[in-house]
Write a structure and sequence with these properties.
CATH topology: Porin
Strand content: 35-45%
CATH class: Mainly Beta
Largest sheet: 10 strands, antiparallel
Number of strands: 12
Length: 233
């Protein structure tokens, strides 16, 4: 499948190098967060790559939820269970969990459909900054720390009314931000489409830490820097 260039196998383990994770973020998700730069000291594997690997390996269920329990460092030895139950975890060699998955209902393994869904979802997901977060921060007059932005991918879930899909895609439905002191909980609701028909829904949640008073000049600088990074690809 199209994900093969973005991971490698070592025995029963799956490994994702910094270069592989970064290439997935930039070329598939259009996500230019510095934390996915291969030379970043804070590098972490894109959460959407873990999501994609789960769908590729285990198929798509009508109801699925993904909760991220920790950030995956480069070359972490990940264990994908060989015969998972309806709830399972992706862990490392020391059983430290990184992703918790729950699923129920009908399941399909059509790789063409799954690839199309992955490609559409991860592009949607990669729009966090600036497209979705900046308007929310402006509305609530808060912002992340420009010197050390901390936005954590907490969870996502999907529900399909049916799985006889041909061309699944994702469309934004609504955005929300709840601010509690220096913490913000962002929620991105989306519709799942097949062609022009709605076939389900989903939600992605993020945690924003270190919030401070909104400053337009600082936001403009962050957006300009992000846009410049995109143009370097």
């Amino acid at each position: 499948m199209f994900l093969q260039p973005f991971y490698s196998r070592q025995g029963n383990h799956v490994l994702i190098s910094a270069e592989q994770g970064s290439r997935f973020a930039k070329s598939i998700s259009n996500d230019f967060n510095p934390i996915h730069d291969p030379d970043s000291k804070r590098f972490c594997v894109p959460g959407d790559l873990l999501f994609a690997l789960v769908l590729e390996r285990y198929g798509l269920s009508r109801n699925m939820s993904f909760t991220f329990a920790g950030m995956v460092a480069r070359d972490t030895q990940l264990v994908f269970p060989s015969a998972p139950e309806d709830s399972f975890e992706i862990v490392d060699g020391r059983d430290k969990p990184y992703l918790q998955v729950s699923r129920s209902g009908e399941m399909i393994h059509n790789q063409q459909v799954i690839e199309q869904l992955i490609r559409n979802y991860v592009v949607f997901s990669g729009q966090n900054f600036p497209h979705l977060l900046v308007p929310l921060m402006a509305e609530h007059q808060v912002m992340i720390n420009p010197q050390r932005p901390l936005v954590i991918y907490e969870s996502m879930s999907v529900h399909f009314d049916r799985l006889d899909l041909a061309e699944p895609s994702v469309e934004l439905a609504d955005t929300k931000l709840e601010v509690n002191g220096k913490r913000g909980d962002a929620e991105f609701q989306f519709r799942l489409l097949d062609g022009d028909k709605t076939v389900g829904c989903g939600v992605k949640t993020l945690i924003l830490s270190g919030l401070r008073e909104y400053q337009q000049a600082a936001i403009d600088d962050m957006v300009a820097e992000y846009s410049a990074r995109q143009n370097t690809l």
